[in-house]
Amino acid sequence: MSERVDADVVVAGGGLTGLSLACALASARLSVVLVDRVDPATATAPSYDGRTTAVAAGSQHILEAIGVWPVVAAAACPINDIRISDGPSPLFLHFDHREVGDEPMGYIVENRHLREALLQRANALDGLAIRAPARIVETRQQTGTVVAALDDGSQLSGRLIAGCDGRNSNLRRWAGIPVATWRYPQTSIVCTAVHARPHRNIAHERFLPGGPFAILPMNDDAEGRHRSSIVWTENERLVPGLLALDDRAFAEVLAEQFGDFMGDVDVAGPRWSHPLGLLHAARYTGDRLALLGDAAHVIHPIAGQGLNLGWRDVAVLAEVIVDAKRLGLDIGKRSVLSRYERWRRFDNTTLAMATDIFNRLFSNDIGPVRLARDLGLAAVQRLPGMRQLFMRHAMGMVGELPRLVRGEPL
Question: How many CA atoms lie within 13 A of 45 on its CB side?
């Protein structure tokens, strides 16, 4: 007889979205089994993922409410200001967090630190079990439950399975949910830069013809060197040549893009590259299935909002499930899950469209278009009310906010 484990919810995927959902539900005393194909020790190694995440203020509230932020706070660098410029244009847009309150607009955290904190919290929660490395090979419906068969022969049963298994989601494919998707002719290069002058907790987004060039403030390293995370979006045809450069040559090219406002610039550590695209699922739910994060939507990283959308998915789905459970309802029924889909679709669709439009508008060097967008930046700079609205959007603090985003327990 193969082993069978019963739980309220099975979470497929142990990335940042899946771990956050599992911790949120288990914190509210639901039983959860999380399955991931990657060994946790591998996922927290510095060589596994060199990216950082811009944790918006609303997402920080979620992590605080589920008991994760106290572990990760020391590794988080506040974003107090954002400066947006268009290549060499003297016109710019400056967001100052003091216009909307005392709270930072967000934080820059290395992904490995987020994983470590989430895993530490997950391991401390009763009712949360992690099966990794393991892989779901099929799912099937039974009366009132969904059963996930693992590659080791064991079976997991739950009222609901949450698909946090990424843009190539097997759960989405098995459910027959179509997607709208396309590739951008761009690839992002991610690395860490060290620079002579401090960043003063300012994030810079510089629009260049090949795509946005983001300079994101990080905490100083153990040697006291000032650091920033670089997300350099470039024409995909040019990226292989850039990645082939040796460290010195790449640092020289990076310094040209960077400018001299932070003094001498060098590269610390390896470089990573990620092809860019857009994906949006036709539905977020199926039979005892809910899709979250990249399994439901992938957007351009131009605004650093991709993972924040996933965290808002987590906050809404957790609230919907917990409320249904307290009312004695079946948490996997379509009538329950439809509330999650209605709540999240507008936000995700709107931001996907906005990032797509902004990328197409700014990733070119057409004279009249460049003039129009520069005048637009200057106009917003002169309108405090519009600036504040943009800042609240960037902080994830606009619209109908779930309890976790407000910093309240489930």
Answer: 8
Rounded CA-CA distance 377/362 in Å is 11
Question: Which residue shows structure tokens 């930046």?
Answer: 377
Alpha helices in 283-333 (DSSP H): 306-326
Instruction: Please state, in angstroms and rounded to a whole number, the distance separating the CA atoms of residues 336 and 341.
Output: 10
CA 146 vs CA 61, 138, 186: distances in Å: 32, 10, 39
Q: Where are the beta strands (DSSP E) in 282-396?
A: 285-286, 289-291, 297-298
Residue recorded with tokens 């919290």:
121
Chain centroid to CA 378: how far? 29
Q: How many domains does the chain have?
A: 1
Tokens of 178: 């179509």
CA distances from 112 to 34, 75, 217, 299 (A): 19, 10, 16, 22
Residue 347 belongs to what domain range? 4-79+109-180+278-363
* Domain membership flag for residue 333: yes
- What's the distance, Cα to Cα, between the start and end of the chain in Å? 38
C-alpha to C-alpha distance for 395 and 178, rounded to whole angstroms: 30
Q: Answer whether residue 120 is part of any domain.
A: yes
Query: Residue 312: inside a domain, yes or no?
Result: yes
224 falls within a domain? no
Rounded alpha-carbon distances, angstroms, from residue 99 to 320, 337, 400: 33, 37, 22
Q: How far is CA 206 from CA 82, 107, 149, 180, 195, in A?
A: 11, 19, 47, 29, 17
User: pLDDT per residue over 336-390, tens digit each?
Assistant: 999 999 999 999 999 999 999 989 988 888 888 888 888 888 888 888 898 999 8
Q: 303 with 276: CB under 8 angstroms? A: no
Q: Is the bond preceding 133 in cis, omega lying within 30 degrees of 0?
A: yes
Give the pLDDT confidence of 278-337 residue by residue, as tens digits: 999 999 999 999 999 999 999 999 888 999 999 999 999 999 999 999 999 999 999 999
What is the C-alpha separation between 301 and 311, in angstroms, rounded?
Answer: 15
Nearest to 171 by CA among 179, 161, 185: 161
| CA nearest to 390, candidates 409, 377, 400 | 377
Asked if residue 162 lies in contact with residue 274, where contact means CB atoms within 8 angstroms, the answer is no
Alpha-carbon distance of 333 to 337, in angstroms, equals 6
Q: Which candidate, 334, 329, 314, places its Cα nearest to that of 62?
A: 314
CATH code of 127's domain: 3.50.50.60
